[in-house]
Amino acid sequence: MQVGCFFYSAEKIVVNYVLVAHNKTRNQSEKSEKVLQARKTKVTWSAAQWQQYESRGVQLDQYAVFENTDQTVAWYGFGAVATYTPSSPAAFTAVAAWVKQLRQQLASTVSSQDIAILGGFAFSTPGATQHNGWGALANGYFMLPRFLVKRSGGQTELIELSAAAFASADLLADFEQFLPAIVQPGVEVDLLQQVEDAASWQQAVQQVVTRLQTDAYLQKVVLARTLMVTAAQPFSVTQLLLALRQVHTQVYHLVLKVADQLFISATPERLVAVQGQHLATAAVAGTTARGVDAATDAALGAALLKDQKNRAEQQIVVTAIQQRLQNLTTELVLPARPQLLKSQQVQHLYTPITAKLQPAADLFTAVAALHPTPALGGQPAALALPLIQQLEPEYRGLFGAPFGYATLAGDGEFAVAIRSMLVQQQQAFLFAGAGIVAASKPAAEVRETTLKFQPMLQLLRGVDHAK
């Protein structure tokens, strides 16, 4: 974090609005008698101060992070004044309605750009059965934070939301009081066991290849697999987040903690960003490793750009995005050839796409139109998704699904939650997927997914355990 010392701005904004009480059982929102106040102040913190706040914040029952690829836009949620648990995975309309209701209940004297929900949807396939390990996150989870830290345009703001009178006139004092006490990290413990399904998954890939070679309408199927890692003691959430930023740069950092469940993603892939009527998305597909030196890295990237199988796979994604945005946007712009998108361990084929939203479209209609892209689902989706459900033994949950933030003004950004894992105490479930086309080689796809496990394995191997 590039931050300095703390100060208050002269201005404090205090507003009242009606708190939405969320019925988690029936997944409906209704007006409450409670009045929610909000106030904010500009702040700067030293890196040590911020690390301390985050170390305390991750001990709360709800904590969320969204950091974009260059960390110029970031949101952090500490606790929650309201939550929304969808009744089904792809509940885009329901979440959009919840945000709209919050916006309508917000007094006009506060900028709705300063308040955002954080969270993610779940990946849905027809007839999918939930994996018990996902618990409260099985259908996705969104929160309106009790305290928000917003960083944008080189400025950081602390926003407090309260359903009662503020505890004091001092916003920072309220924040300090709200956070749990500091807990020192425990002793490092080696990973004890890794369990994966490589052999059976390779057989599933072969089944998909056979189907692709015999079905003229099916172009691509994305199959995911899971790696389970066990340690002797619970993983330290604090150390995982520190390692996330140290090890994985130039990617999105996505975090959602609910009780003892922690979801982490270091994804390079944007699903969609909306600011006003401006929309930005990207087609990402095709993968190769990074080189040990600049020359090797450049050679690997050049080979990826020339590889017919990977170029064809990525073009499927580009074409699908163009088709899905056709009725939602105008002025769609994209380069004729893909570029390289590089993260710490891998590089991908990448095509940035921009467009102007139609007046009736918004962030959530764009999310609904784009998810799942062929990079995570396949093409056409109507044929690929049932095949995924048939051949994948595990429920995807938040893996590969839209994760991000939405302001009450309607702007926001969602990334595709790949390079991710679900951590529960001393167990971690890592997820990786591969795009299968007719020319795919099952053994090569196993190697590719093994490579994609490395970002999260690197976090687990490089951190202490037990908060």
TrEMBL record:
Any Pfam family hit: Chorismate_bind
Catalyzed chemical reaction(s): chorismate = isochorismate
Domain of life: Bacteria
EC annotation from Swiss-Prot or TrEMBL: 5.4.4.2
Top-tier EC class: isomerase
Domain called Chorismate-utilising enzyme C-terminal: residue spans: 199-452
InterPro entries membership: ADC_synthase, Chorismate_C, IsoChor_synthase
Record bears the keyword Isomerase: yes
Keyword Metal-binding attributed: no
SUPFAM superfamilies: ADC synthase
UniProt record, GO biological process: salicylic acid biosynthetic process
GO molecular function: isochorismate synthase activity
Gene3D superfamilies: Anthranilate synthase
Keywords from the named record: Isomerase
PANTHER family in UniProt: ISOCHORISMATE SYNTHASE ENTC, ISOCHORISMATE SYNTHASE MENF
Similarity field: Belongs to the isochorismate synthase family.
Protein name: isochorismate synthase
